[in-house]
Amino acid sequence: MEIITVHTAQNIDIDYEIGGLGERILAKLIDYAIFLPFLFITIFLAPVLSSEALGIYGIAVYTLFVFYDLICEVFFNGQSLGKRIMKIRVISLDGARPSFGQYLLRWLFRLIDFAATGGLGALVSAAITENGQRIGDLVAGTALIRSVPRTQNKDMVYVKVDDGYVPVFNQVSQLSDKDIALVHEVITTYYKAGNSAIVYTLAEKVKTVLGIAPPPQMNSLVFLQTLIKDYSYYAAQADSL
User: Fold this and answer.
1) N or C: which end of the chain has fewer CB within 10 A?
2) Residue 15: Cβ-neighbour burial (10 angstroms; 0-12, 13-18, 19+)
3) Could you tell me the pTM of the whole model?
4) Nearest C-alpha neighbor of 182 from the set 222, 227, 145, 216
């Protein structure tokens, strides 16, 4: 299983699974299939529309086809319908959502990846590059990853706490679901790779942001695990209201 390591704005390295070639091809076929009904409509309307009206309709459909990927990726967080179904999406190599400029560069280089090379450029580039990037991704600084987290069950992020549990850090309420997901991802990465530096770095960052001074005997890993338990407790309380 190929992994891409992304360095986030929080100075944390997070691993993502790279979208496979099979998933990419199927996503592309699904996206192409979306336009099949337009072809059937064209055949149906051809006898009843004037050549001018049919020409306008054809131009409109072709324009939508050309800009489809760009529009979808910009407005749907790096996913077309095909990518969404196949659970893959485009991200920036800094872990953030790509900028419009990155999406635009990626889209423009479809001329080389697909039009000029019949898809061979994209296929070869994705197969031989370290991060599975097609030419457009290399230029734009993006990559295609699996959008489904390695941990499938939400309960793995929001742990079950006892009814009598007393939260240790009430400052955890300042965090968001996204923050807690990052904490969980770091812990998962630590158990997989044994890199304690990422745990320490994130723990120190959270302590600074929230103004928390944990007990001296609480190490960085236990601190992050406690944050997840505390957040889970408050989330469960909110759901019960």
Assistant:
1) C
2) middle
3) 0.64
4) 227
DSSP 123-180: HHHHHHSTT---HHHHHHTEEEEESS-S---GGGTS----TT---S-GGGGGS-HHHH
Which value, in Å, is the radius of gyration of the alpha carbons in the chain?
23
